[in-house]
Amino acid sequence: MTYKEKTREEHILKIASFFTTSEKFLNHPRGLKFFKQSFPYCRRPLVTGTEIIHEEHPFVEQVKDSKVLVIGGGPSTLRYNWNWEDYDLVFSCTQFYLNAKIRNHVNLVVPMRGGFEDCCKKNNIMVAFDRGKSFVNGFYTRCHNQSVLFQTRYWSKAGVAPRLIVLATLWGAKEVHVVGADGYPKEFKPLQRTKHAFLGGATTANNHSYQRWQTIYLDLWQYLLYKIGTKVKYVNLGYGHPYNISSLYLDNKGNWLS
Predict the structure, then answer these.
(1) Rounded to two decimals, what is the model's pTM?
(2) How do the domains of the chain map onto residue ranges?
(3) Architecture label for domain 32-248
(4) Would you say residue 171 has pLDDT above 70?
(5) What is the CA radius of gyration of the chain?
């Protein structure tokens, strides 16, 4: 299969999964300059590369050669079970703390809004920020040792979970299992709603066509399997769930299907 990335320089924003090419990333408007503008309070030395910019932090070293579980907020998280002891680290996203099954096991979270602070401080959960929202500076200042700043070249329109998979890969995980990184079934229409794994009875709206969901996850898995994660084992724990678009490309044994 020919691997070709869609960048925002060549495609409209809604289609592209990458800001720019690897070669241009650091000097791109969404590269190093953007990182420094977004995080003027950054205190640590930076690690820069063609796929990611991030602060030096001891937690990054913990990820190397580890087995990571990524838990997204999609409905497949509600259906499947796993053994926490099988994993070295657990990564999750914004409102993980609302799910009692998950909140006491998470090691790292990438939040898109506030509300996570008390749970993270209480449980010593690392918080990784990849955008300069208003809540970032306060937590970063108060809980500096629990915070790390980063920016990836990859930027998906499918929520945080795909970026967590990419982050675990770029920080050197040897194996990544994922659940809750879902989309919507073919019969769902744009703006139709379904249950979110972290929000109890609350729902979220479908904001893409089925074809677009397919493209989003194809871009992700090609990037992982053909470029940055060629030596990483990936397992799709949500395989077979009707909302799990990744089931088109990766099964629960780590087999690439397309």
Answers:
(1) 0.93
(2) 32-248
(3) Alpha-Beta Complex (3.90)
(4) yes
(5) 17
